[in-house]
Amino acid sequence: KNEVEQSPQNLTAQEGEFITINCSYSVGISALHWLQQHPGGGIVSLFMLSSGKKKHGRLIATINIQEKHSSLHITASHPRDSAVYICAVRYSYSGGGADGLTFGKGTHLIIQP
Amino acid sequence: DAGITQSPRHKVTETGTPVTLRCHQTENHRYMYWYRQDPGHGLRLIHYSYGVKDTDKGEVSDGYSVSRSKTEDFLLTLESATSSQTSVYFCAIRIGNTEAFFGQGTRLTVV
């Protein structure tokens, strides 16, 4: 079974700290998503990556296709960044299995003031 | 939000009763998905659709059926709800090959 592993599972940090969340996957992908979910809330797509690096405000996402690894960074973290961050991939070849995304279990981030 | 609406947003139902969740989109996208989200598991695919009347099973399809009679609506039915189907259900659409947009979720409690 193709797995998506995220680390850490839980992260508590102080306001202003630089945050890194990691995601690794097992086989070739066509795209990787970083998603954000606030408590009790919906799921919002932050980034979609197939190569390289993307930046939006204080958020930066990188992907290394050869190492099958992606990172999400938050600079100058703020309490409003507190949320669950989810990595999801679309595999290049599902091996005859279902279409759709495969998700990591998420990283629970708390930023304390 | 790419025009995705889920209904209802919250539902409490009794074991053994049928339940239908609706996902509605306004932009005629071909691919639609139903996922469930449970603590310790993340999101898992239940069923998906690649066009009107074209559906297929996902990872956790047992106990669920779907229908797509119109492009804009994708219905998820629990024929006889069980407590193990208590979950948060998310609908999603795919735009192009890689984009993903999610509905706001439906919190279902089976008592």
Mean pLDDT of chain B comes to 93
Shape call of chain A: globular
Order of helices and strands of chain A: EEEEEEEEEEE
In whole angstroms, the N-to-C terminal distance of chain A is 40 Å
Q: Could you estimate the helical fraction of the residues of chain A in percent? A: under 10%
- Give the amount of beta strand of chain B, in percent: over 45%
Number of helices of chain B: 0
Question: What class would the helix/strand composition of chain A place it in?
Answer: mainly beta
Largest beta-sheet details of chain A? 6 strands, mixed
Alpha carbon gap, first and last residue of chain B: 31 Å
Evaluate the radius of gyration of chain B. Answer: 13 Å
Oligomerization category of the chains in this entry: heterodimer
Q: Which structural class matches the secondary elements of chain B?
A: mainly beta
Q: In this structure, how is the largest beta sheet of chain B organized? A: 7 strands, mixed
Strand portion of chain A: over 45%
Unreliable parts of chain B: none
**DSSP strand count of chain B:** 11
- Cα Rg of chain A: 14 Å
Mean of all residue-level pLDDT scores of chain A: 91
Summarize, please.
The complex is a heterodimer of chains A (113) and B (111). Chain A is mainly beta.
Care to describe what's here?
The complex is a heterodimer of chains A (113) and B (111). Chain A is an all-beta fold and 113 residues long. Chain A is 0% helix and 58% strand. Chain A has no helices and 11 strands. In chain A, a hairpin with a 2-residue loop joins strand 6 (52-56) and strand 7. Chain A is globular and about 45 Å long. Chain B has strands at residues 4-7, 10-13, 19-25, 31-38, 42-51, 54-57, 64-70, 73-78, 87-95, 99-102, 106-110. The N and C termini of chain B lie far apart (31 Å). Chain B is built from no helices and 11 strands. Chain A binds chain B through residues 30-31, 33, 35, 41-45, 48, 50, 86, 88, 90, 98-101, 103-106, and chain B through 1, 31, 33, 35, 40-45, 48, 50, 56-59, 90, 92, 97-105.
